[in-house]
């Protein structure tokens, strides 16, 4: 019935979709297996993409040749660039999306991707021969062979849903859990654990009073995620903000005795940075209110996502508490919130390619690795799909460094440090934030995507043109001189000091009061030069010149640290031979098997002394 595939991807969430698309676009024959063809790329939680650090990841996926940015642009109902009051390292794009359109666009994109086949069924096990995965077995007993398998099971592995004192098996509301894979992996020697996440109730927007809420419109001049020719939205939908109060908190507290979280029925650890509403009022009892974001689910639906009200309390408590929130007095609930527990596998059992250490050609991506968030999952799926294709074609693996991408930071953190709770990306996790901005993701990564056969030649040529235009503008501004008599009046009006002599125009950009817009107001010569280049080129040159010293400092630091990555450690190195290593370091190194001294230095429990000892030993 089935010919042998190059890559089988199990699960069609954000990770699975990116994995399938990447491997297929690089030339692999791919089978994407999902339990429900109707829920491909389902936005299980909030209908949004991006945000702080997450927006950078979406742009990186797009720059490499992935689909998430394009799909987000095609389905967005609102765009906002967050943190514009801070420096460009913190700017983070975010879209509010049409939930149904997002899933539809993903399915259409996959169906148009040559090389992707589909099969609807549960995968109940893996086919393993001589420590190598050679395919999968389905719940109908069908065996499908392949050269590599990517597991992207999300919250479905032995998933259990909790609402108050009720609990039942399920990987998502109204969808059954996946069984069999966890048990087999444990038998093979894998370590597993349990995690928990949650989702809020959905309500009928027609029953809300938006007049008493604070409107949160999109940006006046909206941007987009993709570096391709996708269009920014011509119209946008507003979101809204309201707040809980003491009455809401007291009502929620009435359900604490039935809370699965407080009564110990939930064993898995939940996301620290996205706690349930009951966890918020328990941990932060001193706060009189908590913010609630009221988010539309799409262009043509009245369904509303109540962001900030994630809960697993009994449905009647949820309903009564919701109606005490300003604007929700007459709210009608479509469905209650719930918590879900699921199996995950500590990611220290993976290589930096996301291939497992125990079984060759088996890759894990997404929530199976202990992460939370669409963006984190999608980026892992992309990297797993890329590396699965490269491995079976005997090509060099593709690994991004911490200084090259947030994706590199994410995977490096997971593999070397592991995680005891759902991992979420933040800008604070990256040491090279000024290098890893959202605006330069194409300049950093598109050439890499092109070289491995993922990003198209048209994308690559577009980046070369962009780089050339940036050099031209920077050179022109460097050669141009600002004359005191021509610019001083405008400089003083802008609140910055006048010039005493001619200076290079580029020096004026170092002043905090002056950007490209203000530069064009100083002198007609400057304005004419700027008008030859679009906003994107001007912005890139402005950032590079204004933050030049900071960028150079980070680049030098990255180069210094990178030298440790050149010290390779042979895969089967016997750490027991190095008696001077601490026992903790020896234990961690034997388990994680770092590929370089640089990777070793980032493993929790490995001290600088251990790094020095091993470096000297390997040098001998």
Which key terms come to mind for this protein?
620 residues; alpha+beta; FAD/NAD(P)-binding domain; 6-stranded antiparallel sheet; 21 helices
Q: How many beta strands in the DSSP annotation?
A: 22
Q: Runs with pLDDT <50, length 5+? A: none
Helix percentage range: 25-40%
What's the mean pLDDT score?
Answer: 95
- Silhouette: globular
Structural class: alpha+beta
Report the biggest beta sheet as strand number plus sense, adding barrel if it closes: 7 strands, mixed
Count of separate structural domains? 4
CATH class of the largest domain, named Alpha Beta
Give a structural overview.
The chain is an alpha+beta fold. The chain folds into four domains: 5-47 and 65-72 and 101-200 and 342-424, 3-Layer(bba) Sandwich (FAD/NAD(P)-binding domain); 202-338, Elongation Factor Tu (Ef-tu), domain 3, CATH 2.40.30; 457-554, tRNA uridine 5-carboxymethylaminomethyl modification enzyme MnmG/GidA (Arc Repressor Mutant, subunit A, Orthogonal Bundle); 567-619, GidA associated domain, C-terminal subdomain (DNA polymerase, domain 1), CATH 1.10.150. It has 21 helices and 22 strands. Strands 1, 2, 6, 7, 8, 9 and 20 form a seven-stranded mixed sheet that branches. Strand 7 and strand 8 (132-138) form a beta hairpin. The longest helix is centred in the last third of the chain and has 23 residues, at 457-479. The model has no long low-confidence stretch (mean pLDDT 95).
């Amino acid at each position: 019935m089935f010919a042998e595939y190059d890559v089988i991807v199990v699960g069609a969430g954000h990770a699975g979709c990116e994995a399938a698309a990447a491997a297929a676009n690089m030339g692999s024959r791919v089978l994407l297996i999902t339990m429900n063809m109707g829920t491909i790329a389902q936005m299980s939680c909030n209908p949004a993409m991006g945000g702080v650090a997450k927006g950078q990841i979406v742009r990186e996926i797009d720059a490499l040749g992935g689909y998430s940015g394009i799909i987000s642009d095609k389905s967005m109902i609102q765009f906002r660039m967050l943190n514009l009051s801070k420096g460009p390292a913190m700017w983070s794009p975010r879209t509010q999306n049409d939930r149904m359109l997002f899933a539809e666009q993903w399915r259409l994109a996959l169906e148009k991707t040559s090389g992707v086949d589909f099969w609807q069924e549960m995968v109940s096990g893996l086919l393993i021969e001589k420590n190598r995965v050679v395919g999968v077995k389905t719940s109908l007993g069908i065996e499908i062979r392949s050269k590599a398998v990517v597991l992207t099971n999300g919250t479905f592995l032995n998933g259990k849903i909790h609402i108050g004192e009720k609990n039942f098996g399920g990987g998502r509301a109204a969808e059954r859990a996946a069984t069999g894979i966890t048990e087999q992996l444990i038998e093979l020697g894998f370590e597993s654990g349990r995690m928990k996440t949650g989702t809020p109730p959905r309500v009928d927007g027609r029953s809300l009073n938006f007049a008493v809420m604070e409107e949160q419109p999109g940006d006046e001049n909206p941007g987009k995620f993709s570096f391709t020719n996708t269009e920014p939205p011509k119209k946008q939908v507003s979101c809204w903000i309201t707040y809980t109060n003491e009455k809401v908190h007291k009502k929620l507290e009435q359900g604490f005795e039935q809370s699965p979280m407080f009564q110990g029925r939930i064993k898995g650890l939940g996301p620290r940075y996205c706690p349930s509403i009951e966890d918020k009022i328990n941990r932060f009892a001193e706060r009189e209110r908590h913010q609630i974001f009221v988010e539309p689910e799409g262009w043509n639906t009245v369904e509303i996502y109540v962001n900030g009200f994630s809960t697993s309390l009994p449905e009647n408590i949820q309903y009564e508490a919701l109606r005490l929130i300003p604007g929700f007095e007459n709210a009608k609930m479509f469905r209650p919130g719930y918590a879900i527990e699921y199996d995950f596998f500590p990611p220290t059992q993976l290589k930096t390619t996301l291939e497992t250490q125990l079984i060759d050609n088996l890759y894990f991506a997404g929530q199976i690795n202990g992460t939370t968030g669409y963006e984190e999952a999608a980026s892992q799926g992309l990297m797993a799909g890329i590396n699965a294709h490269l491995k079976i074609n005997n090509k060099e693996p593709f690994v991004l460094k911490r200084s090259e991408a947030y994706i590199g930071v994410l995977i490096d953190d997971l593999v070397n440090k592991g995680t005891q709770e759902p991992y979420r990306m933040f800008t604070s996790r990256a040491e090279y934030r000024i290098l890893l901005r959202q605006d330069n993701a194409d300049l950093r990564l598109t050439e890499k995507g092109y070289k491995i056969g993922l990003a198209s030649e048209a994308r690559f040529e577009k980046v070369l043109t962009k780089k050339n235009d940036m050099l031209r503008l920077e050179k022109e501004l460097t050669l141009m001189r600002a004359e005191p008599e021509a610019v001083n009046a405008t400089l003083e009006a802008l609140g910055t000091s006048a010039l005493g002599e001619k200076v290079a125009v580029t020096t004026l950009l170092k002043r905090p009061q002056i950007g490209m817009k203000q530069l064009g107001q100083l002198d007609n010569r400057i304005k004419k030069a700027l008008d030859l280049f679009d906003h994107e080129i001007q912005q890139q040159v402005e950032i590079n010149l204004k933050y030049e010293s900071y960028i150079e400092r980070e680049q030098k630091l990255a180069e210094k640290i990178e030298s440790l990555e050149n010290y390779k450690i042979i895969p089967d190195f016997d750490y027991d031979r190095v008696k001077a290593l601490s026992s903790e370091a020896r234990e961690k190194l034997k388990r994680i098997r770092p590929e370089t001294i640089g990777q070793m230095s980032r493993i929790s429990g490995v001290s600088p002394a251990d790094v020095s000892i091993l470096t000297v030993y390997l040098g001998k």
